[in-house]
Amino acid sequence: MNNTSAPSRWFPHTLAATFLIFWTIMAANPVMRDVWWAENIPVMAVFLLLAGTYRLFRFSNPAYALMACWLFLHTIGGHYTFANVPFGFVTDLFGFSRNHFDRLGHYTIGFYAFPIAELLTRKDLAKPIIVHLFGLFAIMALAAGYEIVEWWYAVLAGGEAGIEFLGSQGDVWDAQTDMLCDTLGAITALVLFAFSGIKAEGERPLRAHNG
Q: pLDDT digits over 88-131, tens only?
């Protein structure tokens, strides 16, 4: 990383600063504060995890850019609630019967398959086929787990807050469609990773020593 240009080297810092400013703006006067908390707890957790582990493992700039997509979109969804994000121009353009901003958010969750694959590859923890399968299955498991959390919170909170957090908008297949969007996002990210040229760093050549 030392031979990279200054803009490339500082990209994660610039992206993080931009997100913090954006997050602060979106934290002011959300539509429903209780829903905002429920939506932003995972956002804060992911951001702090990435910031806290930066010195231990610096992902590539494409990985940080892809991960930021979900952070930004989920922050917007937390401010407005996903069902009420101003997304009418897309709804009208395609003649949709519902606000599909939440689908876009779920699609970007799948982008986290890229950093998962990058970590496994650079640390030489698995062969390429396992790297891609693990990245895909990890996102699919996360997607299923998140739908369970959404259901649990909706039941626990009840009322309007529960409905807005669930964001199904009357769609009986909402959970299944969300998981499909997560999976499609993961497939997209893994295709991008396959062409990224990222390889093992040789930081842990234990296999060669043991062989």
A: 888 787 777 788 899 999 999 999 999 999 999 999 999 999 99
- Give the chain's domain count: 1
Residue 209 lies in a domain: no
Residue 9 to residue 61: CA distance in whole angstroms: 9
Q: Is residue 211 part of a domain?
A: no
Helix (H, G, I), strand (E, B) or coil at 15: helix
For residue 36, give the nearest of 70, 73, 80, 68 by alpha carbon.
80
pLDDT digits (tens, 9 = 90+) for 60-72: 999 999 999 999 9
Residue carrying structure tokens 């200054």: 6
Residues spanned by the domain of 149: 6-201
* Measured distance between the N- and C-terminal CA atoms of the chain, rounded to whole angstroms: 29
Alpha-carbon torsion 114, 138, 81, 86, what sign?
positive
CA distance 177 to 181: 6
Amino acid at 67: M
Assess if residue 68 is contained within a domain: yes
Instruction: Let me know if residue 207 belongs to a domain.
Output: no
Q: How far apart are CA 120 and CA 125, in angstroms?
A: 5
Report in angstroms the alpha-carbon separations of 105 from 4, 77, 111, 185. Answer: 32, 8, 10, 10
Is residue 77 within 8 Å of residue 39, measured between CB atoms?
yes
